[in-house]
Amino acid sequence: MLLEGRNAVIYGGGGAIGGAVARAFAREGARVHLAGRTLAPLERVAEAVRAAGGVAEVAQVDALDEAAVNAHADAVAASAGGIDICVNVISHGDVQGTPLVAMSLGDFERPVVTAVRTMLLTSRAAARHMIRRGSGVILTFGGAGGRDPLRDVYSGGYQVHLGGTQVAFGAVDVLRRQLACELGPHGIRVVTLESAGIPETLAEEWREAITQSLVDSTMLKRAATLEDVGNVAVFAASDWARTMTATTLNITSGREAD
Fold this sequence. Notes:
Blueprint lengths: L6 E5 L4 H12 L3 E6 L2 H13 L3 E6 L5 H15 L4 E4 L16 H29 L2 E6 L11 E2 L3 E2 L5 H19 L4 E7 L9 H13 L9 H12 L9 E4 L8
Parallel strand pairs: 1-2, 1-4, 2-3, 4-5, 5-8, 8-9
Antiparallel strand pairs: 6-7
């Protein structure tokens, strides 16, 4: 198994993406520590992991609370013997569908502030323990800095307006590179899983139209699934990717060309 004996902390572990990553990590032998603000969805993911023969722990943690994040990381490291993998997939509270010129400052800046704050807090807390062991992997998810602003019109005439989402991805992208530079000498890698969107995570009322638009815009004429995300996350966190850092793994099915 690719992650046998590894300890993985997944912030936002009760969500669709976090759950997919948790199940894939556990399948490959990792002990997953699921953290989030609400216990019920964390417990559901943990039960699924355990039912499949994996090991999962849950903790109620606000990934925007510095003291809470530090205390949880310290507790995991103390009980499990260290932290090998840190994944942050919490929601950024973004508002979509409103043009920038019509959006309030609060709605615009919320995802930017949230994304940067939570990535710094969780990465820093995990890295402090990784440094002591001389190894570790920090994974981010969602985009490669939004280098291509979205101008698509989904079927049905729904115009894409992403507000601060792409700006947040851009900020996280810069932080990912800086963390990789500073943590590299300690054997710690920082990698982003770049996605153009996962249809299974979309609201039901928009899923069909958005999925078709997404598929049509890709080279492979398909969209990534939650299973794809989990499998790529396993690869990124494993020793098979040990020479990869300060970069992205493009799982956009060719929607984005590097």
